[in-house]
Amino acid sequence: MNHFETIFDFFTKKLAGEIEEISKRVPEKLYEPVIYSLNMGGKRIRPVLLLMAYQMFRSDLEKALPAAFAIELFHNFTLLHDDIMDNAHLRRNFKPVHIEYSNNAAILSGDAMSILSYEYITKCESVNSKEIIDLYTNTALKICEGQQFDMDFEASNNVSVDDYLNMIGLKTAILLATSLKLGAIIAEAPVEDAQLLFDMGYNLGLAFQLQDDLLDTFGNQDIFGKTIGGDIVSNKKTFLLITALKLAKHDQLTELNVWLQKINFSRDEKIEVVKKIFSELKIFEITQKKIEYYFQIALNCWEKINVDLERKEGLLSVAKNLMDRQN
Q1: Which residues partner with 91 through β-bridges?
Q2: Please, where are the H alpha helices in the chain?
Q3: Where do the domains of the chain lie, and which CATH numbers do they carry?
Q4: Nearest to 91 by CA among 49, 148, 38
Q5: 175: closest CA among 151, 148, 149, 206?
Q6: Which of 163, 161, 168, 162 minimizes the C-alpha distance to 147?
Q7: Nearest-angstrom CA–CA distance, 280 and 261
Q8: How confident is the model at residue 225 (pLDDT cuts 50, 70, 90)?
Q9: Alpha-carbon dihedral of residues 119, 121, 124, 129, nearest 10 degrees?
Q10: 324, pLDDT greater than 90
Q11: pTM, rounded to two decimals
Q12: Chain centroid to CA 301: how far?
């Protein structure tokens, strides 16, 4: 029951049908980037988690599909805008929408995706409709707040680890958490179980983003699907950089600051030098321990969910796979 692959295949087929319907909308140029974005693929983690959470309590998955579509559309909308803000050149080994089309197209089509996501969430048939809309709306706003914090950090030299963890909690973790909780709410699960799923998703989301930061610096680009070293090049205040600045000794700190302040530089050289300092400071190992810390909290929440083991073991398998990923 509720194995990721089975639900992934189910959702992917249903999403293909929705993409087909979206392709019939006009004006075509508004929806072409939407279709392009959705057809890039991806792991569909958030909608599948929503469906897995729903299936812990009920078996009629069709009822939860509108919320799953909403989550997937909203997530992809954020990627369209994030890629513009980050000046990204690769997304899932494809050109991002703003490069394939234009910045204006990515902004407007992204806006359309966000509105489409609300169109889907309002189709949820549940006695908890108000709670669903309230949670979804609050999450959408929190993600925007997280993105603003991320942008603010670019110009700040005083970002702490706690600041960073709060930011990724808003920008990344909350959507994973909400996906799981929405599935439970639509299934009319006990309040306590719905909250445990939210808490599990939030801590899993923190671990997920820290893993993403790690892969951005130490991953394999062909597998990761994004340009390696982008965070280093853009001086992004990740857990890795913040921790390095805190731990660096005099010479290391001086060299880090020199590279952080350089305007004209060799991209490859900057990545090589900063990675060398990271290695000297054992940043990889420190980040890995932090990932394991949040993953353990997520596991503790999973253990307390009051359903039979066979109904929740699939979720544990997904959580473990997320922590072992290379992309």
Answers
A1: 94
A2: 4-22, 28-38, 45-55, 65-86, 97-100, 103-121, 129-154, 161-168, 174-186, 191-218, 221-224, 230-233, 239-247, 250-261, 267-280, 283-304, 309-323
A3: 4-323 (1.10.600.10)
A4: 38
A5: 206
A6: 168
A7: 21
A8: low
A9: -120
A10: no
A11: 0.92
A12: 20
